[in-house]
């Protein structure tokens, strides 16, 4: 994978593939729209963007977060707020594939409370990252158990079904699932899984 090869120059970087591509890497049958990269601290976003300097334009016409915004040499990252979360984002394209590199944190939340719904892009996933061998690379990914919560929150039934199918064939970590899911989502998953 091109991304992991590029990021080898940052051996201390803590990162993971999140979003739909993480599901694909773990064997789910879905079509990812882009590649989302989680990093453990805000300064890492710019470091990762700099690994793709040859793809960056000198300057970007759009300077605020929009679908068309892209990192540039003069503005490698952008910061913004969504609801109660603060984001730092970098965006690059490789062969027309969008790669978003993000650090995000929820304001006024010191640490995750189990059973309240673990946020896939939040700082609390750092200790849960798993490593998947793909061809000659080892790719860090957010576990499917965490992704299930995200997809329940977003109401993406097709991805819930794809993750559930993968759990049916390969099993899952029930303790991790209880930790990650909101309690009512865990009950729904358990009821649906038995059918």
From TrEMBL:
SUPFAM superfamilies: Nucleotidyltransferase (SSF81301)
Superkingdom assignment: Bacteria
Protein name from the UniProt record: Polymerase nucleotidyl transferase domain-containing protein
Organism, scientific name: Paenibacillus macquariensis
């Amino acid at each position: 994978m091109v991304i992991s090869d590029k990021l080898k120059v940052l051996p201390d970087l803590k990162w993971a593939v999140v979003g739909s591509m993480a599901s694909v890497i773990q064997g789910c049958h879905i079509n990812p729209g882009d590649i989302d990269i989680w990093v453990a601290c805000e300064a890492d976003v710019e470091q990762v963007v700099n690994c793709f300097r040859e793809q960056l334009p000198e300057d970007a016409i759009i300077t605020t977060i929009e679908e068309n915004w892209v990192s540039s040499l003069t503005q490698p990252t952008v910061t913004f707020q969504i609801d109660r979360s603060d984001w730092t984002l970098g965006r690059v394209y490789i062969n027309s594939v969008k790669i978003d590199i993000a650090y995000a944190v929820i304001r006024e939340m010191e640490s995750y409370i189990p059973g309240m719904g673990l946020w896939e892009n939040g700082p609390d996933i750092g200790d849960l990252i798993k490593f998947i061998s793909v061809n000659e690379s080892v790719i860090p990914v957010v576990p499917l158990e965490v992704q299930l919560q995200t997809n329940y929150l977003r109401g993406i039934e097709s991805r819930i079904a794809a993750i559930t199918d993968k759990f049916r064939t390969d099993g899952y970590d029930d303790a991790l699932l209880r930790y990650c899911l909101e309690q009512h989502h865990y009950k729904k998953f358990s009821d649906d899984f038995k059918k």
